[in-house]
Specification:
Belongs to the phosphate acetyltransferase and butyryltransferase family. By secondary structure, this protein is α/β, with parallel strands linked by helices. It is about 40% helix and about 15% strand. It starts with a helix and ends with a helix.
Amino acid sequence: MVSFNDIIKQASSKKEVTVAVVCAEDLEVLSAVQMARSYELANFILIGNEQKIDGIIAAHFPGLLESGGVVTLSADTQLQAATKGVQAVSEGEASVLMKGHIETSLLLKEVLNKEYGLRTGSVLSHVALFEVPAIERSIFVTDAAMNIEPELQQKAQIINNAVAVAHGIGISEPKVAPLAAVEVVNPAMQATVDAAALTQMNRRGQIAGCIVDGPLALDNAISHEAAHHKKVGGDVAGQADILLVPTIEAGNILYKSLMYFGNSQVGAVIAGAKAPIVLTSRADSGQSKLHSLALAICSIN
């Protein structure tokens, strides 16, 4: 298992990393910044309402600004903060973009700006890593937040994005399970058809750097016992590193089930842009935001 402690250590070994935080006037966001600075993960540009940012820091994290590695940049509106953050990354002043107290749609609009945004022509996708106590493993889930009902080629790009993140934390050949409700191809179930096609694309070198095999149901993707009982073979069954969900609804339910039923630790990053994007929920804890930061830093090309 690659733990978040391992990922934090790996991220702290990277040099000259700067994170641009958009609308940083948020207690949990600044808590993550404080923890990240204590691990020497990165330097930070805190963009937003300077008075509110300074007030939160003075009340909860005194000395953070004076310790070095953290500067503030004033922005009068959320849109202006998003623009400044995206431009900082686009112009090389920062290497990671992080969401603070701002609507996701507003930040992504600036990320996709044709003039100064972070578009690459690839699909942007959400890659979440869970440290799951029940199975004593870490496992990726993608895509639980960005793509609603991806088609085959989009799913291939979503796999590529997740594989790149897995490579970043040292998993050289991740095993990818395209999930469905059953383990056999059923023409009436598009998820099974796509899974079989993705498997063939991988075998023919169209999807590289990983092993793809599916369709697989969740149980036989992660459990050797379930795979053996159902007589499901292959190189991925029972040992998947990456779970590719068929739709955003399936991903969202799996994501929240792992958190609330499975008591899992999580970190997530948006991949496929020119730089990693930390796009955590405003409800996420400072610890989850720290995990996401570390995962993003390890994902830097």
